[in-house]
Amino acid sequence: MRRPSQKQLQAQIDKFNAECPVGSDIILTMDDGATIETTVRHEATIIGGHSAVGWFDGITGCYMLDRARRA
Fold first, then answer.
1. Residue 34 is part of a domain; what is its CATH number?
2. 11/34 Cα distance (integer angstroms)
3. CA 70, CA 19: separation in Å to the nearest integer?
4. Domain that holds residue 35
């Protein structure tokens, strides 16, 4: 599987940030498959040059944007 390009990652981040600004309610799928409702804490970013991630209330660290959806 090919990694997304920087352009693709940035497009994913731009879309998420536009649709889910800071303070938006989000449903986040955790590593074990459980879902929780949380809030966007900070704008999404690229981390490590290879992953589009979001920052959410009550979560230590970040989660991949493909695990987050608008509540």
1. 2.30.30
2. 27
3. 8
4. 6-70
pLDDT digits (tens, 9 = 90+) for 40-69: 999 999 999 999 999 999 999 999 999 999
* Residue positions counted in the chain: 71
Burial class (CB in 10 A: 0-12, 13-18, 19+), 63: buried
pTM score: 0.91
Answer whether 11's CB lies under 8 Å from 46's CB.
no
Q: Are 68 and 54 in contact (CB under 8 A)?
A: yes
Domain count, the chain: 1
Spatial distance between the Cα atoms of 71 and 61, rounded to a whole number of angstroms: 20
